[in-house]
Design brief:
Helices cover about 35% and strands about 15% of the residues. It has ten helices and eight strands. Strands 1-2-3-4-5-6-7-8 form an eight-stranded parallel beta sheet. Helix 8 links the parallel strand 7 and strand 8. Helix 6 runs parallel beside helix 7 and helix 8 packs across helix 9. The N and C termini lie far apart (about 40 Å).
């Protein structure tokens, strides 16, 4: 039992519309990770969440430094992670663990700052998981003032506008690999430059571009939103960018749900953050958005059931086709057709 299980049970909801097919395009798998609320999140652990009421058809694993060995080079570490996840995906694909296909898509990491030298690493990823490997995430999430905790990746300042990074980035398109962008909101202008320079590479924005609400951004919610709105508007004009809707229940976002006596309901989650969802949907359009869980990171603030309930409540007036796209189809298209065959 994870360390906040009792707290999550203080607001236990039943899954709304349990038959609606969902592809969860953003989760992690790991062990011995003391940074987040669940130190272990392996196949049995994610299945507890995906089988808790919603109809999770398939998922996409996103890199998180799992199974990195500090004695190995970065080239070896990123391949270790893909090998680890591909094994879990094979277990899930056997059908012995239920209907959900965990890690049907895999997004790994690669040191794009290596420039042209990264090409061999990308090819190795593909050779390890040729049917599952879909793209690369390279993080830019950092802030130079020292008040925001560094992410595990500890990226350099300005990585998305670095010439060597661009040299490495250029190797994604020929391999039909997408790019997963994880930055904080002050770095959105840099991401815009990257997207404009590589208009033929699919870029998937994580977590709304990371609106911050802690450190030097504490009590500056309106200022943060105003900056975010301006630059998300500009980013949406880049037709090669699609947006993940979710991932703002982390501590860095500053909503402090984890400090409340009672866990939030799905409605509370969505009402507090609704303007980020509605603005992104308005700017990017239905066809360029997809809901994500970001579990187990966002589990610090909410349960899996309540989170997806919030998404369903947000879209309750949407058409059937719109919801099908947002909950399932857009994710499967973005990660190259992850959908299961339709039964006759």
């Amino acid at each position: 039992m994870n360390s906040n299980e009792e707290w999550l049970l203080t607001n236990k909801e039943e899954a709304l519309e349990p038959n609606l097919p969902i592809c969860d395009p953003h989760h992690h798998l790991w062990d011995f990770n003391k940074t987040y609320i669940e130190e272990t999140y392996l196949l049995p652990d994610i299945l507890k969440d995906t089988e808790s009421g919603h109809n999770i058809v398939s998922t996409v694993f996103i890199e998180c430094g799992a199974m990195y060995n500090p004695e190995h080079s970065i080239e070896e570490q990123v391949i270790n992670e893909t090998e680890f996840v591909n094994g879990i995906a094979a277990m899930s694909n056997s059908g012995l663990y239920g209907k959900t296909k965990i890690a049907k898509g895999i997004v790994g990491s690669a040191p794009l700052l290596f420039g042209d030298k990264v090409a061999n690493i990308l090819d190795k990823h593909i050779s390890v998981a040729p049917k599952r490997f879909k793209g690369i995430r390279s993080q830019a999430a950092m802030h130079p003032d020292g008040t925001i905790p560094s992410t595990r990746a500890r990226p350099i300042e300005g990585v998305y506008i670095n010439d060597m990074f661009h040299q490495g980035f250029a190797h994604l398109e020929p391999r039909n690999l997408s790019f997963e962008a994880w930055c904080y909101h002050p770095q959105l202008p840099q991401l815009i430059q990257l997207a404009k320079k590589f208009p033929n590479t699919s870029i998937i924005l994580n977590h709304f571009g990371g609106p911050l609400g802690i450190g030097s951004f504490t009590d500056k919610e309106e200022e943060t939103y105003s900056f975010w709105e301006k630059h998300i508007t500009e980013l949406s004009k880049c037709e090669n960018v699609v947006a993940k809707l979710g991932g703002i229940a982390m501590e860095i976002n500053g909503f402090k749900w984890h400090l409340n006596k009672k866990a939030p309901s799905g409605l509370e989650l969505i009402n507090r953050t609704k303007r980020y969802y509605e603005k992104t949907l308005d700017l990017f359009g239905i066809d360029r958005c997809m809901f994500e869980s970001n579990f187990p990171v966002d589990k610090i603030s909410c349960s899996y059931v309540n989170l997806w309930n919030g998404f369903k409540l947000l879209t309750k007036e949407y058409s059937h086709d719109e919801r099908t796209k947002l909950f399932h189809d857009n994710a499967t298209v973005s990660y190259t057709h992850l959908t299961l065959p339709t039964k006759a």
